């Protein structure tokens, strides 16, 4: 995520609300003050000369997040009219410049473990390929490429890598997962998360009701691409336990105070609203229809969101959902053979 959970909490504590506009732009709200900033994240230490290159690439106003910053870098960011968050995984400092108002950011140390940072470009196409192989067998690379929206050579490279790991193989009928459970295990170990911008909220209503209310708010605001994930989606697909937290993916974020929710930290949140970078979170064109009024995320995305939940019964919920996905896969295979 471009903005960590600790940074989100630091901004909330400072009285600043983040409203994601897309996967890398946010509107910051502080009282009557508003500012739209592009979020740029660096995992390496920057020097003042690096700011010159960043300014040439990003002519709009930027919220820069870095693991550390020298006084010279802080001065250069301030002179550019940008905002700065220094997030070392333990505490967050910096400042925001919102409509001419400078807001200092300072948090004390936290016991929340920092999330591993993935360096370089995330191969979203490869992860989407794994999603599709988990759904059903495929006749050929051309079909997979058309479904995923990447080139056939890229699909070929990704399939070769998965084949080397024993996760995929080519049959007489086409490409298939060698062992679907092994593919699920690889997914849960390797998927870096959907990226983008994540905001956390707390509400008193049950998670399913919160999901319905937020979908209504987003739809009323013009949002058309929405997907429910996590416990609520798993309960619709394969009921196992009472949902504890709602995860909602949307192309645009919103201020959810109008839905009766308040900004929260990781421990208290009952709902996550994520504007993702990963295009694979949305259900594929061949996804089996699920009865109900709420749009669901890609099934393997739901599996990942359930697996990162808390509680002693999480492993059981994951296994139950995997059994459901096996059943979906068998139905898809029979449909292809018919």
Quick recap:
38% of the residues lie in helices and 21% in strands. It has helices spanning 5-13, 48-57, 71-79, 124-135, 141-148, 152-164, 180-190, 207-220, 230-237, 299-307, 314-337; strands spanning 17-20, 25-30, 33-41, 62-66, 83-87, 92-98, 101-106, 168-170, 175-177, 197-202, 226-229, 246-250, 262-263, 271-275.
Fold and architecture overview:
There is one protein chain. The protein has 338 residues and is α+β, with helices and mostly antiparallel strands. It contains eleven helices and 14 strands. The protein is globular. It starts with a helix and ends with a helix. The model has no long low-confidence stretch (mean pLDDT 90).
Summarize this structure as a short list of keywords or feature phrases.
5-stranded mixed sheet, alpha+beta, globular, Arc Repressor Mutant, subunit A, 338 residues, 14 strands, 3 domains, Trna Endonuclease, Chain: A, domain 1
């Amino acid at each position: 995520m471009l903005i960590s959970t600790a940074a989100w909490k630091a901004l909330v504590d400072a009285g600043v609300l983040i409203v994601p506009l897309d996967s890398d732009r946010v509107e910051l709200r502080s009282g009557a003050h508003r500012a739209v900033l592009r979020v740029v994240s660096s995992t390496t230490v920057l020097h003042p000369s690096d700011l010159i290159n960043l300014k040439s690439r990003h002519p709009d106003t930027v919220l820069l997040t870095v693991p550390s910053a020298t006084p010279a870098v802080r001065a250069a960011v301030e002179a550019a009219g940008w905002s700065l968050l220094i997030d070392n995984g333990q505490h967050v400092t910096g400042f925001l410049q919102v409509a001419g108002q400078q807001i200092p950011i300072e948090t004390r140390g936290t016991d929340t473990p920092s999330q591993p940072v993935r360096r370089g470009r995330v191969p979203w196409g490869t992860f989407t390929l794994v999603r599709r192989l988990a759904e059903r067998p495929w006749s050929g690379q051309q079909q997979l490429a058309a479904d995923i929206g990447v080139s056939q050579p890229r699909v070929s490279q990704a399939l070769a890598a998965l084949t080397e790991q024993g996760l995929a193989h080519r049959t007489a009928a086409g490409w298939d997962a060698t062992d679907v459970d092994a593919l699920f295990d690889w997914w849960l170990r390797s998927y870096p998360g959907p990226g983008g911008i994540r905001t956390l909220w707390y509400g008193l209503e049950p998670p399913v009701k919160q999901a319905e209310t937020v979908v209504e708010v987003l739809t009323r605001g013009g949002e058309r691409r929405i997907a429910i994930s996590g416990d609520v989606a798993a309960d619709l697909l394969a009921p196992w336990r009472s949902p504890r937290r709602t995860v909602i993916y949307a192309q645009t974020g919103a201020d959810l105070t109008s839905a009766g929710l308040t900004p929260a930290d990781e421990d208290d949140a009952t709902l996550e609203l994520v504007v993702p970078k990963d295009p694979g979170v949305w259900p594929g064109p061949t996804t089996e229809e699920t009865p109900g009024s709420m749009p669901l995320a890609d099934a393997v995305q739901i599996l990942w969101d359930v697996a990162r939940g808390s509680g002693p019964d999480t492993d059981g919920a994951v296994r139950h959902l995997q059994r459901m996905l096996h059943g979906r896969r068998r139905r898809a295979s029979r449909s292809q053979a018919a």
